[in-house]
Design a protein that fits this description.
92 residues; alpha+beta; Alpha-Beta Plaits
Length: 92
């Protein structure tokens, strides 16, 4: 039962990130950047983003920061606009 709470979308996606690089990714590449749980997999991140925000994810890239955080670069399919989602999340 403990594993079930670990994989809930709200436990995987911590918060969206907005920086200059993230803004460029939104505008140029249809990508959003999220800080996610350190031990989450790309598949878990994809499922969480799709469930939380009702979008389709094309690709996920992750990286670990020097501050021991995990960033997920989430590329949306052409059917979904990252700018619209960023606006809905009140990032912009």
């Amino acid at each position: 039962m403990a594993e079930k709470t670990e994989t809930k979308p709200r436990n995987i996606i911590k918060y969206p990130l907005l920086s200059e690089k993230a803004m460029n990714a939104i505008e140029m590449e249809n990508k959003l950047v999220f800080i996610v749980k350190q031990n989450s997999s790309k598949k878990q991140i994809k499922n969480a983003v799709e469930e939380l925000y009702d979008v389709e994810v094309e690709e996920i890239n992750t990286l670990n920061t020097m501050e021991n955080k995990k960033k997920a670069f989430v590329k949306l399919t052409a059917d979904h606009n990252a700018m619209d989602l960023a606006t809905d999340l009140q990032l912009i």
